[in-house]
Design goal:
- The protein has 2 domains: about 250 residues, Bira Bifunctional Protein, Domain 2 (BirA Bifunctional Protein, domain 2, 2-Layer Sandwich); about 90 residues, Anticodon-binding domain (Rossmann fold).
- Helix content is about 40%, strand content about 20%.
- It contains 16 helices and 16 strands.
- The strands form 3 sheets. An 8-stranded mixed sheet has the order 1-5-6-11-10-9-7-8.
- Strand 12, helix 13 and strand 13 form a beta-alpha-beta unit.
- The protein binds adenosine monophosphate (AMP).
- Pfam families: HGTP_anticodon, tRNA-synt_His.
- Its EC number is 6.1.1.21.
- This is Histidine--tRNA ligase.
- Keywords: Aminoacyl-tRNA synthetase, ATP-binding, Cytoplasm, Ligase, Nucleotide-binding, Protein biosynthesis.
Length: about 425
């Protein structure tokens, strides 16, 4: 064993587990295609200020969870991205995307980094898939991203999910609400825990996110943001809900839902899974029209998006037996050689088969025929192709179906014809 271990809160993934990731990624990509979202990839690190501005200085992410570093003593601080939205918006503004087309539908599958205390479903490097729809935040746009997200869960067969949804109003509504909330909590300041006390000054909305059971009743009786939302905002929210009903998406309106990030406005949502423990949030999102201005874009940009945690999604799928029996696909053919001197020829045979799009494995370690057969079975190969001196000289090879055990002799060209699969590229 190496003296080095993977860093706490990070994970290695080998082929037998990678197939689970590929299953989910495949569905995400398929649904993204159906909903016409194009893939966006942004750098893994950005200037630290981007996240300070884009996520908000009072959030836990910026306050204590960022992996930041100085590239050199004079350099500007950099940070490993803790979420995707700020980077995508930065990229969109930098490219001036909206001047090229009025609407952009982007999706991603990306690694993120947060200095959190690792536990089940909470890592320091984790992966999210998500989408950002830029240029529109109409009820239809909100329903579009929500349908995409819920569509992925549906396609994967995941059940036991709860979609909670709320409206946060506009900036003005939130400012009035913030004042009301501060006035409400102030007389109870002594009963608040340390982090809530801090939030009381900086951002009292975040007290509502507290998981502290001692504060539950106090929070439940607090004024509701919904009562501060103007009539237009309420009407828009109703429209979103009606579109979701039309599309058969079930939801629960939860006026206590306030997302931790500062740039959200109007619709916000969160999905939890009954299969997860303390960390039961599987995804969330909402509208963030104010982010572009916050990042120096000069004005608001209508925008709505979501992000789903892949690790938690996989934990929930595992609990529901949705990953059972999933294993890497073995090669179609295993080339078995009788003696070492034929291994050069075996490589040529494998090369021809691979060129025809037939996945082929062969012995690379000079093992006995028996060991090669064992390996072919272990890998789940469909056929074994035998090469001995006679086969080499006659050009007629034995092909054995490893499931039915039937065996016949063919030329290599015939075998290629029989097993040929269209090659995707090349
Ligand atoms: P957020 O960006 O905080 O809204 O998170 C969106 C989703 O990402 C959550 O619902 C989780 O599924 C996932 N997530 C967030 N933080 C972590 C983490 N540290 N480890 C694993 N998954 C996470």
């Amino acid at each position: 064993m190496s003296q080095y271990q993977a860093v706490k809160g990070t994970k290695d993934v080998f082929p037998d587990e990678a197939v689970q990731w590929q299953l989910v990624e495949g569905v995400v990509r398929r649904l993204a295609g159906l909903y016409a979202f194009g893939e966006v990839r942004t750098p893994v690190f950005e200037y630290t200020e981007l996240f300070q501005r884009g996520i908000g200085a009072t959030t836990d992410i910026v306050g204590k969870e960022m992996f930041s570093f100085l590239p050199d003593p004079q350099g500007r601080s950099l940070t490993l991205r803790p979420e995707m939205t700020a980077g995508v918006m930065r990229a969109a503004l930098q490219r001036n995307l909206l001047s090229q087309a009025p609407l952009h539908k982007l999706f991603y599958i990306s690694d993120l980094f947060r200095k959190e205390r690792p536990q089940a479903g909470r890592q320091r490097q984790f992966t999210q898939f998500g989408a950002e729809l830029l240029g529109a935040s109409s009820p239809a746009a909100v329903a579009e991203v929500l349908s995409f997200m819920m569509g992925v869960f549906d396609a994967l067969g995941l059940t036991g999910l709860r979609l909670r949804i709320n409206t946060l109003g506009d900036l003005e509504d939130r400012a009035r609400y913030r004042d009301a909330l501060r006035a409400y909590f102030l007389p109870f300041a002594d009963e608040l825990d340390e982090s809530s006390k801090e939030r009381l000054e900086k951002n009292p909305l975040r007290i509502l996110d507290s998981k502290n059971p001692a504060l539950k009743e106090l929070i439940a009786a607090a004024p509701r943001l919904f009562d501060f939302v103007k009539a237009e905002g309420v009407a828009e929210f109703e429209e979103v809900l009606s579109l979701l009903r039309d599309r058969g998406v079930s939801y629960e309106v939860d006026h206590l839902l306030v997302r931790g990030l500062d740039y959200y406005c109007h619709t916000a949502f969160e999905v939890t899974s009954s299969e997860l423990g303390a960390q039961d949030a599987i995804g969330g999102g909402g509208r963030y029209d104010g982010l572009a201005r916050e990042l120096g874009g000069g004005k608001d940009m209508p925008a709505v998006g979501f992000a789903v945690g892949m690790e938690r999604l996989l934990i929930a799928m595992e609990k529901q037996g949705l990953l059972e029996g999933l294993k890497p696909v073995g090669p179609k053919v295993f080339v078995v050689v009788q003696q070492l001197e034929l291994s050069g020829h075996a490589m040529q045979v494998a090369f021809q088969l691979r060129r025809a799009g037939i996945s082929t494995e062969l012995d690379l370690a000079g093992r006995s025929m028996k060991a090669q057969m064992r390996e072919a079975n272990r890998l789940g190969a469909a056929y074994a192709l035998f090469i001995g001196q006679t086969e080499f000289e006659s050009g007629q090879y034995g092909l054995k179906n490893l499931v039915s055990s039937e065996q016949s002799t063919f030329t290599l060209d015939s075998i290629t014809e029989i097993l040929r699969e269209p090659l995707l590229c090349g």
